[in-house]
Design brief:
Layout: H1 14-33, H2 46-57, E1 136-138, H3 145-151, E2 158-160, E3 163-165, H4 177-187, H5 190-193, E4 198-202, H6 208-214, E5 219-224, H7 232-238, E6 243-245, E7 260-266, H8 278-286, E8 287-296, H9 302-305, H10 313-329, E9 332-338, E10 341-346, H11 351-355, E11 421-424, H12 431-435, E12 442-448, H13 455-460, E13 465-468, E14 481-487, H14 489-493, H15 499-509, E15 510-521, H16 522-534, E16 537-543, E17 551-558
Parallel strand pairs: 4-5, 4-7, 5-6, 7-8, 11-12, 11-14, 12-13, 14-15
Antiparallel strand pairs: 1-3, 2-3, 8-10, 9-10, 15-17, 16-17
């Protein structure tokens, strides 16, 4: 472009500006978790910085760089546009239907892993930005007609032109989720005053409940299994609402004990009293002492609703009594109830558990039961009694939000509105998320299932996260995150996980136009850049705030490309 006098005008590089802004974000984030509440005993934070510098100085990998030959990864076939490796419907026939185990994580062996780039659907566009995305998304980004036809009468969503619109309805709230949550808020005053901060929605539909709660200061993980038609989790993430693929079946959910302030089931079809009540034991484990379990749908309000449930009033009365007895035996008490919503509260302390007979059902878990073990850990028919030493982790004793975060970071003025769904792939205490708390985005904090389990600290700070092993695919659909932050990930995991598979997984879950911030030992930096080029990313390297040669920042952006007919794998 030229000025009217013919001289060239230097146009700003928008992508470069965004990358520079993101670089500031990560540096500010790092400055938070080097200080704040995680200072050394003498309170000046020097111990932490010294430990990091010592670690860098002693790195055995600092003498050179990892060399990888250039490679161009081919496109996967178009039938892989919604590929979820560890929850792949093509593999379901290998697993049983008992307790829906086929819907759990079943990752392919290494010789079956795909070495190709997952393509977007034909006509894919950059997602509509928050907050508009809560109410609409591009049809071509999630082109599922089945759910539109089956659920339009319940006002889950409706197709209008080239968009899906989300009116906010649901099976138990056809008049809108706002009215439904208003009633729930009257039943649980803690939603209003900041006492309730983290929640989980089991069987989330299109996550309208979690989306509504965002405006009320409650951060929700919406949970639903992979399915052939509904794509509930993909719709949630396309809308910019936190969600993860998962099902309560035979394995624990990937969350530590005492994580959530509130759990919710709106006609989620989970048989709570079957199999000895094992599914409720898992809710009890992940719910914080004093936390709330909210149920709407059968058998709540059976006196008025039983005719519409294809059952008898006697059967529904029996189901409700069984549920109430089971909850009472686990030290839940009925907290409040109105219309179709019933709320139970988990015991805020151990006084109720101490009064339970030794020989009782359900039994208390013994000392060999690790309550925070949550990665491929089988469910057991016992319930966890909270440890007395963690009394202050109960909801009654937690600070209200936002004081609960402990340290309020300086507001970051450079966060771009294009960033909504963020993942910290190798977090310790949620410091990156804490540094971004004042910005219109949310962070999924991922703690390694093979490292120290710091996930309880993340939840105690009022943040959300999950355990994961990066040798496997993450429980989400393709193209669901705007920004990935990976600090020391390859240093920590390269001895177990092949680097190219980790980066291909990053590419799978990253949205076109999305960014990656990789903070790594220089040993890995060139290899990252080489693999990234093969995935059609645009990258550049930056020095860290320490300006040392042993550690680098690699900032990358994933380009939007349209699939060709050559994709075949």
């Amino acid at each position: 472009m030229k000025h009217k006098d013919g001289k060239p005008i230097n146009q700003p590089n928008k992508n470069r500006s965004l990358s520079a802004a993101i670089t500031v974000i990560v540096l500010c984030g790092l400055s938070f978790y080097l200080g704040g509440i995680f200072k050394s005993a003498d309170g000046d934070g020097v111990g932490v910085i010294s430990a990091i510098q010592k670690s860098l100085d002693s790195s055995s990998q600092s003498s050179g760089t990892l060399q990888i030959k250039p490679v161009n990864f081919p496109e996967c076939g178009n039938d892989y546009q919604d590929y979820t490796p560890c929850t792949d419907p093509k593999r379901w026939r290998k697993y049983g239907t008992y307790r829906l185990t086929l819907l759990e994580r079943h990752c392919p062996p290494i010789f079956e892993r795909k070495e190709c780039l997952v393509p977007p659907p034909a006509g894919y566009k950059p997602p509509i930005r928050w907050p508009k995305s809560r109410d609409q998304c591009w049809y071509r980004n999630v082109p599922y007609d089945w759910i539109n036809k089956q659920k339009s009468n319940q006002h889950w969503l409706k197709k209008e032109g080239d968009k899906f619109l989300f009116p906010g309805g649901g099976t138990m709230f056809p008049n809108g989720v706002g009215e439904y949550v208003d009633l729930m808020q009257d039943l649980i005053p803690g939603i209003k005053d900041g006492s309730v901060r983290t929640a989980i929605d089991t069987g989330c539909g299109v996550a309208s409940w979690g989306g509504d709660l965002l405006d009320r200061g409650v951060l929700t993980i919406s949970l639903a299994p992979r399915d052939n038609h509904e794509a509930q989790v993909q719709f949630a993430l396309e809308r910019g609402i936190p969600a993860i693929l998962g099902v309560i079946s035979t394995q624990r959910l990937p969350f530590s004990s005492n994580s959530f302030d509130m759990a919710h089931c709106s006609r989620c079809l989970i048989p709570w009293t079957e199999f000895g009540g094992i599914y409720l034991f898992e809710i009890h484990r992940i719910l914080r002492p004093g936390g709330f379990w909210v149920l709407s749908g059968p058998p709540v309000n059976y006196e008025r609703r039983w005719r519409g449930w294809n059952t008898t009033v006697e059967e529904q009365r029996s189901d409700y009594e069984k549920l109430q007895d089971l909850l009472t035996s686990m030290c839940f008490k009925l907290y409040n109830k109105k219309d179709d919503i019933a709320v139970w509260q988990k015991a805020p302390d151990n006084s109720c558990y101490d009064k339970l007979p030794r020989e009782t059902y359900p039994p208390k878990c013994d000392d060999s039961f690790e309550p925070d073990s949550a990665w491929y850990t089988p469910l057991r028919t016992c319930f966890v009694v909270p440890e007395d030493k963690y009394k202050n982790a109960g909801l009654t004793y937690m600070s209200k939000w936002p004081q609960r975060l402990n340290v309020v970071p300086e507001r970051l003025s450079v966060v771009q509105e294009k960033i909504r769904n963020v993942m910290d792939m190798n977090t310790a205490y949620g410091g990156f998320a804490a540094a971004l708390i004042n910005d219109p985005l949310w962070v999924m904090n991922v703690v390694s299932s093979y490292g120290p389990n710091t996930l309880p600290i993340v939840f105690d700070r009022g943040l959300i996260g999950t355990l994961h092993d990066w040798c496997e695919a993450f429980s989400t659909y393709p193209r669901t995150y705007d920004l990935l932050h990976a600090e020391g990930l390859f240093t920590a995991e390269s001895h177990r996980c092949e680097m190219k598979y980790m980066m291909l997984e990053m590419d799978r879950i990253l949205r076109p136009g999305g960014h990656v911030i990789i903070r790594e030992a220089s040993y890995f930096a060139d290899a990252v850049a080489t693999l990234a080029k093969g995935m059609r990313w645009i990258c550049h390297k930056e020095n860290t705030e320490y300006d040392v040669e042993k550690e680098k920042l690699v900032i990358c952006q994933k380009k939007l490309w349209q699939p060709s007919n050559s994709g075949s794998r």
